[in-house]
Amino acid sequence: MPIRPATPADLPLLQDIERAAGELFRPLGMPEIADDEPPALDELERFRQAGHAWVTEDDVTGRVVAYLIGEPVDGAFHVEQVTVHPDAGRRGVGRALIAYATERARDEGLPALTLTTFTEVPWNAPYYERLGFRVLTGAELTPGLQKIRATEAEHGLDRWPRVCMRRDTAD
Predict the structure, then answer these.
(1) What is the mean pLDDT of the chain?
(2) Comparing C-alpha atoms, which of 34, 38, 87, 39 is closest to residue 64?
(3) 3-state SS track over the chain
(4) pLDDT at residue 91 in the model
(5) What is the reported pLDDT for 150?
(6) Mean pLDDT over residues 5-27, rounded?
(7) Is the confidence at residue 171, as pLDDT, over 80?
(8) Which domain holds residue 47?
(9) 158, 165, 4, 15: which is closest to 85 by C-alpha?
(10) Mean pLDDT of 14-25
């Protein structure tokens, strides 16, 4: 599936993808995640303008089915969100987006990708471990990652176990 930079016209589609993917959390007893609003258009536009918003198109329909947004945080590329529409799940789309972000981070001279995620959701921490990410200890959290985790806690995300993870771009 082709990956390309997001366009302004894609941004509402990213919100739709986020809403659809959020529904997967409902059966796990996480309705608050399912009901959470997707990133606002102005926030998505900020990532797009920075050149850090990419989408994947279905190679048959041309429909946008997944996206990844992120930004440099403390010398690494922090994946803020990677979301695949459930209709496109289990086809390697998320893996391809992570690989693409890894290449872009390497091009920018960033030695690693970081992200925060739920530990007990199968398509979160266990999935990222299979992609070569490792859980960071508290002592390894940079000031920027500490700030991200504090913001997540303020939004109630710590109601479920979460971790920060890192993957070197050389991997």
Answers:
(1) 95
(2) 87
(3) CCEEECCHHHHHHHHHHHHHHHHHHHHHCCHHHHHCCCCCHHHHHHHHHCCCEEEEECCCCCCEEEEEEEEEECCEEEEEEEEECHHHCCCCHHHHHHHHHHHHHHHCCCCEEEEEEECCCCCCHHHHHHCCCEECCHHHCCHHHHHHHHHHHHCCHHHCCEEEEEEECCC
(4) 87
(5) 95
(6) 96
(7) no
(8) 3-168
(9) 15
(10) 96
CATH number for 47: 3.40.630.30
Sheet holding 112-118, edge to edge: 3-5, 53-57, 64-73, 76-84, 112-118, 162-168, 134-135
Task: Record the pTM.
Answer: 0.94
Query: Phi-psi bin for 117: left (phi > 0), alpha (psi -120 to 50), beta?
Result: beta
The single residue listed with the structure tokens 């391809």 is: 96
107-147, pLDDT tens digit by residue?
A: 999 999 999 999 999 999 999 999 999 999 999 999 999 99
Task: Name the domain count of the chain.
Answer: 1
Q: Are 154 and 114 in contact (CB under 8 A)?
A: no
Q: For the chain, how many residues are written?
A: 171
